[in-house]
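INFO batch 0412 | record 1 of 1 | parsing
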Amino acid sequence: MGLSLEEDHEAILGQILETLVAERADVLVIAGDVFDRASPPNSSIRQFNRFLKRVSEETEAAVVMISGNHDSGDRIEAMSVFSTASRVLVRGIADAVETPLVLRDEHGEIAFSALPFSHEYAAREVFGDEGISAPADVIGAQISAARGQVPEGARWVVVAHAFVAGGAIGETERALTRVGGIETVPADVFDGVDYVALGHLHKPQEVGATHIRYSGAPLALGFDEAGSEKSMTVMDLIAEKVEIRTVPFRPIRQVRSLTGAFSDLLAGTPSEDFIQAILTDESPLIDPMKRLRATYPNACHLVYARQARAPETKALGAGRAAVTPIEMVGDFMKVVCGRGPNTAEAAIVAEKLHAAAYGEEQT
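INFO prediction complete | emitting tokens
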């Protein structure tokens, strides 16, 4: 919303580095959406490059990184050109031969397969399969390509960027497929993998099984994430046992929504947080945002409560260029039930839609 997050990112990147050192981490996994757009500002590129340089110089951690749907795959792939193959696996473009990074500990070998995000049309060309028509097909082809490269007896970690069925979405995740497509991937596509590090969804969560997990975005990226705790996931793969814990981040500015009369909000405690103001005043005010910023310098969104009350007759999904089936169901539930689907309901909807797309029988 026009406010720079460079200082906020710098604080979080520093905390990631501190954790890598404190945990004596062997690998740093970055599961896509390194940037929020295909052509990020130069300042963001420089900031991220400085971070990777510090990881290389100040820690012993290898780096496994893939592109996400927000990234330019070619830009991320370019980062791999001068990398040290024994410590770095950077993948921006899908490949029919998914060679893993293989590390070793006292329990044997661990293979890391990095599966970058790929649109269906690109995957059809890479894998020579015209039957690839959905993200589930893309991931399935990548897993098949990677499985054959894993050394016999090695533990297997997969890094992927996908919307796995049952995941809880937010307002800022971008759709992974074309209009009307089924973008969910069933969790069972990862059968046989010891740990799956996922990117795409912003909320830290497990999906389908405890070893299939989103670490989540390191910063809140929308007001629907107000109050949510951001963290990084620390995974210990001890022999065949997986231990998972989280390390909370300490953002320098929170994302908050404030509701009330303008005069009450104006008299509130001054704060540098990112503020969304929902005014209960019935009459419009003159230049309220400018006045509000006297108390909240980083106020970045203002709406009147009466405008936020959408009539039940409002068209579902109005104002959106692309509405997926899951979004349509969510919109319907908001009108009928006053809320969106919870995690269990979202999983059921995703399962039924996937079955419908692939002609599977339902009981």
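INFO post-check: The longest helix spans residues 6-23.
INFO record closed
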